[in-house]
Amino acid sequence: MPGACGIACEVCMIREKGVCRGCAPGTDAEAQAMLEWLKGIGLGCRVLDCAIKNQVDYCLRCHNLPCDLLYQAEHPYSKGFLDMFKVIKEVLKK
Predict the structure, then answer these.
(1) Per-residue pLDDT of the chain (94 residues; tens, 9 = 90+)
(2) pLDDT tens-place string over residues 27-53
(3) Which residues fall within 8 angstroms of residue 14, CB to CB, at 6 or more apart?
(4) What are phi and psi of 2, to 5 degrees?
(5) CB-based contacts of 54, cutoff 8 Å, min separation 6
(6) How many folded domains does the chain comprise?
(7) Three-state DSSP state, 13
(8) Does 57 fall in a domain?
(9) φ, ψ for residue 88, nearest 5 deg
(10) Is residue 2 part of a domain?
């Protein structure tokens, strides 16, 4: 299952190595528990926290994408991807 950021945990080497147990969409019943687990191991996730607070399952479905949080985090998406998404949203408005 993809995490709130949209990355497929199933293909992530960090999960494959057993460091992470995977994530959850921001609207999933397990999302808050996942966020607390991440904080407990010293990682946290501002993206998952934002998705929970804004009741959005995935960043790519959020009306605020691209947002300052993702631009500042510089992961999981590059600035180039976020800029491209801005252009796509503008084209779709027309």
Answers:
(1) 788 988 888 888 878 888 788 889 999 999 999 999 989 988 888 999 999 999 999 998 999 999 999 999 877 889 999 999 999 999 998 8
(2) 999 999 999 998 998 888 899 999 999
(3) 20
(4) -70, 150
(5) 26, 62, 64
(6) 1
(7) helix
(8) yes
(9) -60, -45
(10) no
Query: For residue 36, what are the domain limits?
Result: 9-93
| Cα 86 to the center of its chain, rounded Å | 17
For 17, the token pair is 């190595």
pTM exceeds 0.70, yes or no:
yes
Q: Which amino acid is at 10?
A: E
Distance CA 36, CA 48 (A): 11
Cβ atoms of 56 and 62 closer than 8 Å: yes
Candidates 89, 86, 66, 88; CA nearest to 76 is: 66
Residue 45 DSSP code:
-
DSSP 8-state assignment for residue 81: H
